[in-house]
Write a structure and sequence with these properties.
Elements (H helix, E strand, L loop, with lengths): L2 H20 L6 H21 L4 H19 L4 H44 L2 H7 L1 H12 L12 H21 L6 H23 L3 H34 L6 H32 L8 H30 L1
Helix pairs in contact: 1-2, 1-3, 2-3, 3-4, 4-8, 4-9, 4-10, 4-11, 5-6, 5-8, 7-8, 7-9, 7-10, 8-9, 9-10, 9-11
Length: 318
């Protein structure tokens, strides 16, 4: 079925459902539940036939709103707290998924570009990190202490500094959208270049494995958070420039709520990344199996929460 026919055949029911959702009283719950079943069926069809269309995004937003109205907002106390982390935040990742893919692609491409350039000439990494930082890193590598830069501060002080800095970076990645939609993408590019160039610097000096087993102990989580934050910023910006079927202001408000939930949901991961960078990364002499185990387990846990859990929730509701 062509998308235009699909929309024309179901528009009335969708608009009725949207009207029910907007009622201050919450509408007839049983009626909402019946309509919700139809919306999730339509969403499943749209995802299969028109995966990247505005229709699919619109239906996804409707389904997420209905889910929160029917299953989340009716709970209170500790149940509401658990539901926020187990359902509300993951459902926001579903809404943000196209931007998450875009952000991840931008980061990977710029990482590879910076790596290739720096392998041939270290001018890029010197321009990004400064000559002093680069020379200090090279000296640490040659002295057999490649992660020496992570040992210069007291662990507790370093944790506090890193946690505050990473929370700020995450918020800025989203709030940059108030200037222009391009800036969240720029922030993603910036970090891709920085980490890719830093990686190549280690490889140029014969410490590529040390980089992977050291920096990615905390980087597996930290870089994932940056990708997610930039994706939330892209989503927020897109709501202004391409509001879809909603009025521009309402589209922005809805995207803002989703972005705030995502930022809140990522805070525990920022906390974990700061702990690892402050107290674990500095132990460059740890056994390789332990380092690999930490990297893979944190990476898997992070992306399970960002990608797999939301998918499981959507399948459960359909």
């Amino acid at each position: 079925m062509r998308e235009v026919q699909f929309v024309q055949g179901n528009r009335g029911r969708w608009e009725q459902f949207e009207t029910e959702l907007r009622q201050e009283s919450g509408g007839d719950v049983s009626r909402l539940a019946d309509l919700y079943v139809g919306i999730t069926d339509d969403l499943a069809y749209a995802r299969a036939q028109y995966p990247w269309s505005l229709t699919t995004q619109y239906l996804n937003d409707l389904a997420a709103d209905a889910h929160r109205r029917l299953y989340v907002n009716k709970r209170g106390g500790m149940a509401a707290f658990k539901t926020f982390w187990r359902e509300s935040v993951p459902m926001s990742f579903i809404e943000c998924r196209p931007y998450l893919l875009s952000s991840l692609a931008v980061f990977i491409v710029t990482y590879i570009m910076a790596y290739v350039v720096t392998i041939r000439d270290d001018s890029l990494v010197r321009g990004i990190l400064s000559d002093h930082y680069v020379e200090q890193t090279i000296a640490n590598i040659r002295s057999g202490n490649p992660m020496g830069v992570y040992k210069q501060m007291n662990g507790t002080d370093m944790f506090a500094m890193i946690f505050i800095n990473n929370q700020t970076v995450m918020a800025i990645s989203v709030l940059y959208v108030l200037a222009t939609i391009v800036l969240p993408t720029y922030y993603c590019i910036k970090h891709g270049f920085m980490v890719g160039a830093f990686h190549a610097l280690f490889v140029r000096n014969g410490a590529g494995l040390d980089f992977l087993l050291g920096v990615y102990i905390h980087g597996a989580v930290e870089l994932s958070v940056i990708v997610v934050a930039c994706a939330a910023g892209m989503q927020l910006g897109n709501s202004l420039f391409v509001p879809g079927s909603y009025p521009r202001l309402e589209s922005f408000v809805r995207a803002s709520r989703s972005s705030v939930r995502i930022l809140a949901g990522m805070t525990p991961f920022v906390f974990v990344a700061a702990l690892l960078e402050s107290f674990v990364t500095r132990h460059s002499d740890m056994p390789m199996p332990l380092a690999i185990g930490i990297i893979l387990s944190t990476l898997a846990a992070t992306w399970w929460y960002i990608w797999i859990l939301p998918q499981q929730l959507m399948k459960k509701e359909m």
